[in-house]
Write a structure and sequence with these properties.
Rossmann fold; about 280 residues; alpha/beta; single chain; 2 domains; about 45% helix; transmembrane helix
């Protein structure tokens, strides 16, 4: 069932990706013109062009991203004791790392900087990495090609002792992240700092709670700009990148909720200070 969910999600995203949709609509409009279906071409190309122009000129994608990134904030005061630091994979650039035989970070590289900072603050806490390839056409054949091996190398190169690392390298999505690490946690009812991108935190927290894992959100890697810094800048690539991530995350929240992988559609911060899971699986 997990394999079917993984494959279906990749196929669906190929069709629902905003960038892919824009290309498909422009192609459909062009085909309509070539077939001299002028009215149909207008109905397709005019709204598509307006959307593309608006997305180019102004960061309208922030409207989808900001609610995700505002949902959880870093703790106002870090706890005196934690049982570990959970680092979700996604900050690595596996394809380019394998291509060039080096360790490359991607857009989520801030996850590693934050993990290093927390590892220094809590020198006795284990660092628990969970992640694997989320690409259908790049499932590593050996340990040396895995995201886990890449992460282990990055973390040790940054100065974190290998003896502190717990590496889980088979998960392909966020649901599998928490499913796979539960049995690896040093303390089953412990308290763990969770490091991932801010827009990804609501879904991650929802899954952790559903699996009975107590996490304290530590969001990093912000994509959007708050209103004072939002400008007309004609940066289509950056605006589309933010839209892709935000749109994918809202779809993920909905799919995970309706498939029973989380118990809340849009998980919210706990009201009490002690961060405990809301339910165990």
């Amino acid at each position: 069932m997990d394999d079917l969910f993984f494959i279906a999600s990749k196929i669906a995203w190929g069709l629902l990706s905003p960038g892919n949709l824009l290309i498909l609509l422009f192609a459909a409009g062009t085909i309509a013109l070539l077939l001299k279906k002028i009215v149909l071409a207008k109905w397709i190309l005019l709204p598509t062009s307006c959307i593309a122009l608006a997305l180019t000129a102004y960061p309208i994608s922030d409207a989808l991203m900001v609610p995700l990134e505002k949902r959880f904030a870093k703790p106002a005061e870090l706890p005196k004791h934690i049982d570990g630091i959970i680092l979700l994979g996604g900050g690595e650039d596996l394809k380019r790392s394998l291509s060039w035989h080096t360790q490359e970070l991607g857009y989520g590289g801030d996850r590693y900087a934050a993990t290093l900072k927390l590892a220094r603050r809590y020198p006795q806490a284990p660092v628990i990495f969970t992640g694997g390839s989320g690409l259908m056409q790049l499932q590593p054949e050996s340990r040396d090609q895995s995201e886990g091996h890449l992460s282990s190398t990055l973390l040790t190169d940054m100065g974190i002792a290998k003896t502190r690392l717990i590496i889980e390298a088979k998960s392909r999505n966020t649901y599998e992240n928490f499913k796979n690490i539960k049995s690896l946690l040093p303390k089953k009812d412990g308290q763990y700092l969770l490091v991932t991108s801010a827009f990804h935190m609501p879904r991650s927290v929802g899954i952790a709670r559903k699996r009975g894992i107590g996490v304290i959100p530590y969001p990093v890697d912000y994509y959007s700009n708050r209103s004072p810094y939002r400008q007309w800048d004609f940066d289509f690539y950056d605006h589309l990148r933010i839209l892709e991530s935000a749109w994918k995350e809202w779809i993920g929240l909905s799919v995970y909720f309706f498939s029973g992988k989380t118990s809340q559609w849009f998980p919210s911060p706990l009201n009490h200070k002690k961060h405990q899971p809301s339910e165990a699986s």
